[in-house]
From TrEMBL:
Its main location: cytoplasm. The gene is argH. Its EC number is 4.3.2.1. Pathway: Amino-acid biosynthesis; L-arginine biosynthesis; L-arginine from L-ornithine and carbamoyl phosphate: step 3/3. The keyword Transcription does not apply. It is an enzyme of class 4 (lyase). It catalyses: 2-(N(omega)-L-arginino)succinate = fumarate + L-arginine. NCBIfam families: argH (TIGR00838). Residues 367-435 form the Argininosuccinate lyase C-terminal domain. This is Argininosuccinate lyase.
Length: 462
């Protein structure tokens, strides 16, 4: 027995070159527990359909259990002659229970519905792990936001000083994006769960009175595919998960880039914890943000996984094509990458030491309170077009005199515009500025406290 699932119509065996090309056990072996679970459910369906005696059914289940135990113990291995995980497990099952009983299991199923079903099961498990890890990261971000309520930093657009914002507000912006990714994973999961491909056979369905709905439920699905061609040929579930994975990578890379910038001597906003940073082999003084840099780099890799997958799927005619064997490695890489990246990234974030004095010192620089002058004038009844010009004139004078906005004298103010008086100084502090932005979604401390509660609430309900 060579582990081949076909051969009757061939006069000779496949060439070694074909075997080498065709083989997928080096990456699909990890699907073993799912393949065994699918086989157990299938044996039950055959039994219920009257196609397996009680004795044969019990013997098959015993054999599958033995293989499961051997796999868990690390003692089950594919042979070089095995084409894929399905063929290898059939060979091993035949060795365990003998060809007469073992040879009955394949009735009514094809590797095409088999792989589509168990690939979904595998990805659902990993999507859940990734979602949990993203929520851990959200928790670390929320923890930092909570610890630094009140700290003010320079908010930026175009990486230039724009307006002062609360550090917590900035951090929570990352949390919201990550929560949407978890949301995406949850609705991806519900969509995948509704469509078990089991029973689709090679492409046309089964004639053996199997029980697709029952098997689907047994394997954790909520429904069974309505179209056997779609069930075996569709891989949008793979591409969609790769997209969400890439999106997580991109979202994490945005915070990563900030940590890299913030930890430079020029910024000095954060200090990395020793256990979550690295040194240099030649420069003794170095402390490098390797976790953040790897996060930034791995985002590129995750995008590559998605792009490669979509290229494989593009223009494939229905139904199953062997090209589809290429769907696994990219998304395995997606979940493997995220599962090793996210815990490290979370540890780095949780242990960041923020220099809030340094942030507060820089927050008003670059005339970041100019918008506050303009909006104060609007509240005084001045049209915004005029207010914008007036605030701009304030900045111009300050720049020329080498002073900052609060340093303008009462005489300067009156000279720039009659509506401008000493009362404007109320908003010319970073505290006054952030406190004034108290509309929904704004950076005022009262709003940010409320927001922190919303993030925590969202995170516990996802
Ligand atoms: N190992 C294949 C895959 O990953 C499944 C086998 C289907 N092969 C076939 N000749 N129909 O897609």
């Amino acid at each position: 027995n060579t582990g081949k699932l076909w051969g009757g119509r061939f006069a000779g065996g496949p060439s070694p070159e074909l075997e080498a090309l065709s083989r997928s056990t080096h990456f699909d072996w990890r699907l073993t527990p799912y393949d065994l679970a699918g086989s157990r459910a299938h044996a039950g369906a055959l039994h219920r359909a009257g196609l397996l005696t009680d004795g044969d059914h019990a013997e098959l289940v015993r054999g599958l259990d033995v293989l499961g135990e051997q796999y868990a113990a690390g003692d089950l291995r594919p042979a070089p002659s095995d084409e894929d995980v399905h063929g290898a497990l059939e060979r091993l099952l035949l060795e365990e229970v003998g060809p007469d009983v073992g040879g009955r299991l394949r009735a009514g199923r094809s590797r095409n519905d088999q792989i589509a079903t168990l690939f979904k099961m595998f990805l659902r498990d990993h999507a859940r792990v990734v979602a949990g890890q993203v929520l851990d990261l959200v928790d670390a971000i929320a923890g930092q936001a909570e610890q630094h309520l009140g700290a003010i930093m320079p908010g930026r657009t175009h990486l230039q000083h724009a307006q002062p914002v609360l550090l917590s507000h900035h951090l929570l912006a990352h949390a919201w994006a990550l929560l949407r990714d978890v949301d995406r994973l949850a609705d991806w999961d519900a969509r995948v769960a509704a469509d078990s491909p089991y029973g689709s056979g090679a492409l046309a369905g089964s004639s053996l009175g199997l029980d697709p709905a029952g098997v689907a439920a047994e394997l954790g699905f909520t429904g069974s595919t309505a179209n056997s061609i779609d069930g075996t040929a569709a891989r949008d579930f793979v591409a969609e998960l790769a997209f969400v994975g890439a999106m997580v990578g991109v979202d994490v890379s945005r915070l990563a880039e900030e940590v890299i910038l913030w930890s430079t001597a020029e910024f000095r906003f954060v200090r990395l914890h020793d256990s979550w940073s690295t040194g240099s082999s030649i420069m003794p003084q170095k402390k490098n943000p390797d976790i953040a840099e790897l996060a930034r780099g791995k985002a590129g890799r995750l995008i590559g996984d998605l792009a490669g997958l979509l290229a494989t799927l593009k223009a494939l005619p229905l139904a199953y094509n062997r090209d589809l064997q290429e769907d696994k490695e990219p998304v395995f890489d997606t979940v493997d990458t995220l599962e090793v990246l996210l815990p490290a990234f979370t540890g780095m974030v949780a242990t960041l030491g923020f220099d809030t004095d340094r942030m507060a010192e820089l927050a008003p620089q670059g005339f970041s309170l100019a918008t506050d002058v303009a909006e104060w004038l609007v509240r005084e009844g001045v049209p915004f077009r005029v207010a914008h010009e007036v605030a701009g004139e304030c900045v111009r004078r300050c720049e020329a005199a080498g002073i900052d906005l609060p340093d303008l004298s009462d005489a300067d103010l009156a000279d720039i515009h009659p509506a401008l008086h000493a009362g404007v100084r109320e908003v010319l502090t970073i505290e006054g500025s952030v406190a004034s932005r108290d509309g929904i979604g704004g950076t005022a401390p009262v709003r940010v406290v409320e927001q922190l509660g919303q993030v925590r609430d969202r995170a516990t309900h996802l």
